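Known limitations

Files may contain more than one protein. Parsers should not assume a single record per file. Below, a two-record file is shown to illustrate correct handling: read the sequence, read the token line, then continue until end of file.
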Amino acid sequence: MRVGVPKETAEGEQRVALVPEVIKKLSAAGHEVVVQPGAGAGAMIPDAHFADAGATLSDDVWSSDVVVKVAPPTSEEIGKLGSGTLLVGFLEPLTNGAVIKGLADAKATAFAMEAIPRITRAQSMDALSSQSNVAGYKAVLLATNEIGRFMPMLMTAAGTIRPAKVLVLGAGVAGLQAIATARRLGAVVVGYDVRSAVKEQVESLGAQFLELEAGKGAEGEGGYARELTDEEKAAQQQELTDAIAGFDIVITTALVPGRPAPKLITAEAVEKMPAGAVIVDLAGIAGGNCELTEPGQTVVKHDVTIAAPLNLPATMAEHASSLYARNVQALLELFLDEEKQGVSLDFEDEIIAGACITRDGEIVHEGAKQTAAATA
């Protein structure tokens, strides 16, 4: 099997889809890996390291059996895909209709990393989780940098400084990592999620769990929270508005795949926060969890700093790439025919079928069909 690794072209994208550690394993198994020169520059991986791992450095990556990316391809990149080439990457099947239609028109067989079923057998391929870990960690560092206060309690000759109070909204992978990181820095941490089942996970990290009456029992399918009703949202917002006022830092991570981010922090709540407080909104890509969020920007409203970075994993490209590459490797292993040393797709496998977005000129993923139809 020939695997191509192009240099990412999306603005701000520093990650690379495969790293030398994974390439060495693929090469040892008899597969050819072609890496575009400069592909690892953003992740601080020189071309020489790819070559030492057994990769060939060349711009001719698009005609490979499989092309692996991080960000969705541009229309120009889609046009470069060779006949019969498989594409693997984050393809945004529930939001990016133009890319999905382009891949179908190009008759590409495309697999979206974010569409991999969240089942036990697919945990090693779960790129959403691996990258959310990075985002949750970096969100706390970003908040710590923005706030003009200490995180831990300090007892000094000049007096005692109280620890910062941190609230994390959403206790998925990113939220739990944010909770753990803020605790390591010595803050008093409180976690909240509409899924009451995660209370034990929050408390196991040394944080308190904020219990609200509204939205209890909002567990949904696939490990995500279901979308709340309008009545639940209104009641939840009022309770959160009252609770948020006492925190120095609020980190929000609440996302519903393919839908606008739920508004958990009202303008009223921001106004009630102490001057100098910080909000880091990880849902900016879907509009943000805060009413005053400006996606991709850091702004100050009512003396509160609101940061809404759109791609935090790319700011920690070295480790984010390493984790993502292992996810890709695990998926590629499902594609292999060990006897023929080539690609063999078993669409009876629920992982392969679930991750496939386009095939033979058709959009085969139900959510992607709706996205493409809405784009037409």
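...continuing to the second record:
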Amino acid sequence: MELHASDEAANQLASQRLAGEMRAELARQKRTASDLAAALGITPHTVGRRLNGDVPFNMIELATACRWLGIDLSEFVGRVSTDAKALAS
């Protein structure tokens, strides 16, 4: 299955929004990217690429991060969806 340019752009935007919400949650909890990297078992460089939206979080990373942060995965994703709807209005 081929992705069209609009699909790729939508995926990139979704990745950036998830990354932004993850950065915001880390800030709310006064946790660092290095803390997240340790929780995920990946390098700080790799988590940095996830947090700036260059590389999307995979589902295992996202679920692990949410569990570590003490938030429900569906709540986290819902925040991003709600933000996207608000921006579109």
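Parsers that stop after the first record will miss the second one. For reference, the second record is described as follows. Residues 5-28 form the longest helix (24 residues).
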